[in-house]
Specification:
Layout lengths: L5 H8 L3 H8 L1 H20 L2 H18 L6 H16 L2 H11 L2 H33 L1 H9 L1 H12 L18 H9 L2 H31 L4 H7 L1
Helix pairs in contact: 2-3, 2-5, 3-4, 3-5, 4-5, 4-6, 4-8, 4-9, 6-7, 7-8, 7-12
Length: 230
């Protein structure tokens, strides 16, 4: 939703593309990278359900706050908190699915989870553009973010419970963080996956951040048309 609203945010705050690039990229990704491992570890040690529920609530409230800010500094702070919240989602979500499904069905379940995130991209682009066109960009942030708070509560109440650490059978779960990292790096396929995903995201995040603005500036599309086509 941030990417489709860049033209409106730029007009509202009179800021530069460089600043908007910082808000769209580093303000979110640096906090995401820094908090992913600690929150994944917290999910192993404490509660994956709890981490995902709190993460969904935090990033939803922070996303809604993006629609209430009065300047780019406040927007930057909100974006940092969005990154912290989203950092807690994927590892513990995948771990919960791994515990619920047998190896025969696990890939399908994880595929549904992966597809859902892209459905969220579609909703953010098309839904955010439609709401912004009718009620303003601030309302787009708020309207698309607040349902996440209800979702966080639902996960907290209904998510699968976690066995105590001593009762779990997952290999390596009781190891230290450094042991887990060493084991990961010692597996060639996992190293290549990390490298591939990292390289992809350099271009993927740049593309999804700036494609909407490219279509509005270079091809004369409205925000609503751009969101619909993308």
């Amino acid at each position: 939703v941030f990417s489709i609203l860049i033209p409106d945010i730029k007009a509202a705050f009179g800021t530069s593309d460089s600043v908007l690039g910082l808000l769209g990229g580093p303000a979110f990704m640096i906090s995401f990278v820094l908090f992913t491992l600690p929150l994944a570890r917290l999910g192993d040690r404490w509660s994956r359900r709890g981490v995902v529920a709190i993460a969904a609530t935090v990033w939803s409230l922070a996303s809604a706050a993006c629609g209430l800010v009065g300047n780019v500094v406040q927007m930057g702070i909100a974006r940092v908190i969005v990154g912290v919240g989203e950092a807690g989602a994927t590892p513990s979500s995948q771990a919960m699915i791994a515990g619920l499904f047998s190896e025969r069905r696990r890939s399908t379940a994880l595929g549904i989870l992966a597809a859902a995130s892209q459905l969220g991209v579609v909703t953010g682009l098309a839904g955010g553009a439609a709401i912004a066109a009718h009620w303003g960009w601030q309302h787009a942030f708020i309207a698309l973010a607040l349902p996440g708070v209800a979702l966080g509560i639902l996960i907290w109440l209904t998510g699968p419970k976690q066995a105590p650490t001593g009762e779990r059978g997952t290999a390596g779960e009781g190891s230290s963080l450094m042991q887990a990292v060493s084991r990961y790096l010692a597996t060639p396929s996992l190293r290549y996956i990390a490298l591939g995903v990292g390289v992809y995201n350099i271009f993927g995040y740049a593309g999804i951040t700036w494609l909407p603005t490219y279509f509005t500036r270079s091809h004369g599309l409205s925000v609503l048309e751009t969101g619909t086509w993308l």
